[in-house]
Amino acid sequence: MRGVIEGLSENGMGILRAGRRELLVPFTAPGDVVVVRRWRRKKKLLIATDFEVVEASGVREAPKCPYFGACGGCLLQHLPYREQLAFKARKLFELLGIEAEVLPSPVIYGHRNRIDVVVSTSGIGFRRIGTWWDVVDIEECPVFGEASRRVLGSLREFIEDHRPSLYNIKENSGFLRYIVIREGKFTGELMVNLVTSEGVLSEEVVGYFDYANSIYWSVNRTQSDVSYGEVERFWKGEFIREKLEGVTYLIHPNSFFQTNSYQAVNLLKEVANAVEGEKVLDLYSGVGTFGIYLARKGMRVEGIEINPFAVEMATKTAELNGVEAKFRVGSDREVESLSSYDTVVLDPPRAGLHPKLIKRLLRDRPETIVYVSCNPKTLAENLGSLREAYKVESIRGLDMFPHTPHVEVVTKLKLKV
Ligand SMILES: C[S@@+](CC[C@H](N)C(=O)[O-])C[C@H]1O[C@@H](n2cnc3c(N)ncnc32)[C@H](O)[C@@H]1O
User: Fold this and answer.
1) Is 408 annotated in the active site?
2) CATH number (domain holding residue 14)
3) Containing domain of residue 45, as a range?
4) Are 226 and 267 in a shared domain?
5) Ligand 1 pocket member 290 (CB < 6 A)
6) For 133-177, what is each residue's pLDDT tens digit?
7) I need a surface site. Which of 285, 293, 409, 416 has the fewest CB within 10 A?
8) Per-residue b/e over 115-125, b at no fewer than 16 CB within 10 Å?
9) Which of 374, 381, 388, 393 is flagged as catalytic?
10) pLDDT tens for each residue of 52-69
């Protein structure tokens, strides 16, 4: 099948129309002429698996990463950054029916502060696009930056010297499975977390990563293919630190942190600008990223979060920064007295707000809601319900994830009079 790519789908792939069918072709740009030989069905989508760009569109630029086109991590590196932003703004308009500016990330290479690298018999790197079983072997991830080359080099040396068995993905066997690398971009602190199945990790591993500020060994005792495990032990620091706008945040292998530190600064400012009044609820507070920043600005903050470990981290971080914010374990389904807050900040997971929470918001009607969303689809659904009592006062996209189709959105809602 041959044709011209008309535009980009919501998930960042080129759209090729063939009769009544729509094929999605990864790594293509509007205007590319492509020949597609094979495709597969994924849910309702048809995704090209064997294709060729026979005439390249003038819109393209050279991707920085040598693994672009094989690695499934980045889909848009071949598009100039302004085109990526325009794509994200269009996506927001299509999903939300509102024109929203998308704030560019201040840095578009070396911005990611975390990568989860598979350590497998088929390679050390990221999944090949469209597969769960194959890995593109990498020496560096330009989206993370220089430190990835150093850490992956050290890992290869360790493997060569000590010969641990590596993850065989298809058979779900092997000892060494993932290496998660995290870096405080504003502190320069580096964490390496080796995730294994049960077994013995040579203590000599520490010598290979002696430049890291924190080295962890985590054990995944489940059958699941995840880059996460119970901490077996750690060497050097228990945490690394990241510093955003004067606030010091602690990072632990098992805690979430916004993955683009440079743009996280803008996200904090955006949220703070939207908040009104003094008493703020930070719901889905995670490690307290927003709450602690707002408390430092003088607001009285309470945070609610379902993960007890994240709450522990938030409490520790609040203490470290000398702020009064109070975090507690709780579920979005059970929050009460929302009317007692001037502003409720919501930062739910991709699934969006629980229907019970929406009901409570519509019953208690806090004056201002600041909704931070990483999924404009569920945001659109939730806004549909909240519009019964709220109007959108402002909305802004932020590009937290350059080269991917994802976009973060901060929406300020005010109670209708
Ligand atoms: C997108 S993250 C928000 C992180 C936080 N704002 C930050 O920047 O660190 C969503 C958070 O919601 C929490 N969560 C998930 N389900 C929840 C629920 N039912 N009730 C409360 N929190 C929940 C997750 O544990 C996670 O920390």
Assistant:
1) yes
2) 2.40.50.140
3) 1-60
4) no
5) yes
6) 999 999 999 999 999 999 999 999 999 999 999 999 999 999 999
7) 416
8) bebbbbebbbb
9) 374
10) 999 999 999 999 999 999
